[in-house]
């Protein structure tokens, strides 16, 4: 590699304040406003075409589709995904508390809609465990078994119960779609930034635990009470343990055998993947084998094994949602909309980065929303994308959304002709398939060890999210997790890093003297840096730390409030000959240092009057507020950014006593100015807001 050569550069320039810098760079106060939201009233052929291609991207990429290069890969990929969609659709419908056939509907309609409107080439839209269990918590809470007991024998009227739950799920899907489309049209794709990775992983891990516990009744063949709300999963687990002596042996054996077969076939897939053109369809083969054995042996009648039951052939007509249910579903719908989009966009961006294309987050919101909206009209429940199917779609040669369209067509054939063949499929086999597929999400428990070493604040978010979701259920748990995450952001601003900066020898660079042993403080100037933005919540802490770390001698400190509020910034500054500024946020590491007397900095909502002498000039570097420097003469110099200067000029801040000559281009310029203008006498009280 050779040795790195030292490259020196030397720049000679005069000391620059803001006024001189503007003259040198010919700065203009007329800022250009980016045209982020084009005028929707502007109408032209080009504008209409651009909008059409933006919201219907299939018209942009499909005409350029390289048939010879990509069609075969998309066909094989679509077939592979469809083979997974079939058993997962049937199984995840049980998670949603619905008859299995509605999982097939949810694997067809939304997938085809996403083919038309989606921008990710590799994600597999359809049923997903986390989404299904969120839907199941809604359907089971609003339509519990207890509401459909028959008077004669106290058995549940499953037909009426299922009809009510399907109506709830379809209305929920429509409402989720409306939320997602609305957020996408107003460009609110950034809303998922409030769901950090530790929060999402902690939430999905807790959801996987809930999925696991919810499937135990199918594994042991138990009849459990429907529960919802806080601690419902705990009560369900306790009831399972209490009723274990009532387990159906035939059901337990069926689930155990199916689980072992699925695990063994997965191990074979992993071992032989280099030698196989396509992975072994372990779930499909298990379902076919289990259905055949169940039909031939008569598992339902001889051993009491619960089976899927009637699967009607053909499609059902669209049904308008019951709008009267929206008021009951709005909170859950918003939570499902956000979680579903967060999962889809995170996977979409991973694949886009890997294959070198761009995913439009706002269009993804629209595409996913339309998938749920149209799906809800056709009796589907809310969907997102599956990581396992997406990985299969990519690894088997999928190149575009055509693979999704192909998989939806295969599902259509199954719905129309082949679905009724799975009527004797044991539900225990579907439960086993769900539990085996939870391995990836349950492995996220290892995040605890990695986050303990990397970032314990993120570990705290993970743990709080997990515990809140387990105890409060999926909807309240998500709200509590987001609230805690935001509060933690606020809390972090209360504990910023403070440091004293020194000059690196023979440079104009200033670094923390605690971290850089060769950095030396400039005699007569103290540079104090805070990593946090100063605002009302941390102003008092900042002020106290500043006095403590710089050893501020203050005979008298009092709050300045007029009429219940702070002095206006401009008037307060002019009264005491001090300038104030706000700049773009900066992030610094830091540590406290020592110093001499200095004035006190404060935030917007209150002022502080400090009486005392300043023994040195002080340069304050404050993340988010910029830099102030209190020179020996008692005047203040600070380092603004261009938007701040524009705001100050627009507000007529500058006058004869406060000019741009107190603004500097860099820390070094301010330090040099401080050294050239020593204090000649005591200063008057100073207030900074």
Automatic annotation (TrEMBL):
Transmembrane helix among keywords: yes
Keywords for the protein's UniProt record, in alphabetical order: Membrane, Transmembrane, Transmembrane helix
Upper lineage: Eukaryota, Metazoa, Chordata, Craniata, Vertebrata
Membrane topology: Multi-pass membrane protein
InterPro entries: S04_transporter_CS (IPR018045), SLC26A/SulP_dom (IPR011547), SLC26A/SulP_fam (IPR001902), STAS_dom_sf (IPR036513)
GO molecular function term, any single one: secondary active sulfate transmembrane transporter activity
Coiled-coil intervals: none
Gene Ontology CC annotations of this record: membrane
UniProt xrefs under Pfam families: Sulfate_transp (PF00916)
Main location: membrane
Cell location: Membrane
Lineage top rank: taxon: Eukaryota
Keyword field contains Transmembrane: yes
Domain (SLC26A/SulP transporter): residue spans on this chain: 71-465
Residues annotated as transmembrane: 70-86, 92-117, 171-195, 248-268, 280-298, 333-353, 365-384, 396-416, 428-453, 459-491
UniProt-recorded name of the protein: Solute carrier family 26 member 6
